[in-house]
Amino acid sequence: MIRIAGFAGFALLLAASAFAQAADQPVLTGNAAFGDWKADKPGVRRLIKPDDQQKPYVTESASNGGGLADRPEDAKPIVPSGFSVELVASGIENPRVVRVAPNGDLFVADSKAGQIRIYRLAEGSAKPAEKSVFAKGLTRPYGIAFYPPGGKPQWVYVANSNSVVRFPYRDGDLEASGKPETVVAKVPASHHWTRDIAFSPDGKTLYLSVGSGSNIAEDMSARPKGGVEEWAKSQPLGEAWGAEQGRADVLAFDPDGNNRRTVATGLRNCSGMAVQPATGALWCVVNERDELGDNVPFEYAAAVKDGAFYGWPWYYIGDNEDPRYKGARPDLAGKVTVPDVLMQAHSAPLNIAFYEGGAFPAEYKGDAFVTLHGSWNRGARTGYKVVRLRFKDGKPTGEYEDFATGFVISDDAVWGRPVGVAVAKDGALILTEDGNGTIWRVTHGDGQS
């Protein structure tokens, strides 16, 4: 992307900061939910349903990548009334996933630099009391997980683009005490490379998301050896073949990397995973396919069901057949799992974190935050924000609400592209964005825990 001067259009960002929270406005539904960045502000709520899906090619496929601007002076994410935002760090090459160690340290994947960074914040502050590089020499690291979960970890697992490795770890380590041990080798790394990892609550299962190697399996051979019918008999439901075999999947392993199995298929690019504390369910946020028009297909968040097929590349959002594969897999019709929460097409969700802290208002507890990185494939720009998925009694309502906006400067420029989201030990929300390489801390009230 071309970085452009960041001050042109800054008045729009300042004007946006003056908008009041809109939590009392009606929920946007149907076509009204398909706005662009100008309609975004904290409190705006959307509810998108499967029947709202437009037909493909209603609009032409756009090429509209956001021109990256320098962050204007004093610019910060715009959050709801009663919340405040402080800068933790800036000037990081490529901050992506952020995860919080049990002792409160922030572990940040600096993917392009091949590093895992640590930020130890002063109590009740966004100011790092200490910072260090925990590990370097990695291959586009992304997902980070601590093992065993829920206790004093002995290992830090890191998902490279082409493998999963682990480092010995004790509470408070600022640098890895040993060399990486390969747990899962030979993970395909081309095209979608963002590999996330998570552990089941009991620590017995390591989940690994592997995105597709293409938009719609363009490199997949026309037919598998022996034919589609024979292939389907021996493979998980909806498993692709050829160069795409084992991709667009969520895989599972024992913590030592053995006993590989497939959890779910047809997830084009599950770039972020999290285990829901209330239920123990694994959730994915998924980037869907491109080049079908501005509003097709919806992005989504899903509680990943064991053995489920989510459609890629033949179908999307249920039994909507991709016209580029018309008639190719009639055997899969009626077998596509519909995701739980649908979001605007081409928003590019990258990470998800459930809020179980006590520092935000009580109504936030049990909800999830999702970062939307923004996409090149929509004529009217959307994404480039952090949204809140609404839950009730542990179940998603389907609604999502703008939480942090203000990253877009104009139709042609953005300063921020949200990627990582995590809940700090004190209940603050931690956000990363890789447009200008910054990390932010969001608090409620005076920000003290």
Report on the structure:
The chain has helices at residues 10-17, 228-234; strands at residues 3-4, 28-29, 45-47, 67-69, 83-89, 95-100, 106-110, 115-121, 128-135, 144-147, 155-159, 164-168, 181-184, 197-199, 206-210, 249-253, 261-264, 270-275, 282-286, 299-303, 315-316, 320-321, 341-343, 349-354, 368-372, 385-392, 395-404, 408-410, 413-414, 418-423, 429-433, 438-444. The protein is built from two helices and 32 strands. 3% of the residues lie in helices and 34% in strands. The longest helix has 8 residues, at 10-17. The two termini are 39 Å apart. The strands form eight sheets. Strands 2-3-27-26-25-24 form a six-stranded mixed beta sheet, with no helix packed on it. It has a single domain (3-444), classed as Neuraminidase (6 Propeller), CATH 2.120.10. With 449 residues, it is mainly β.
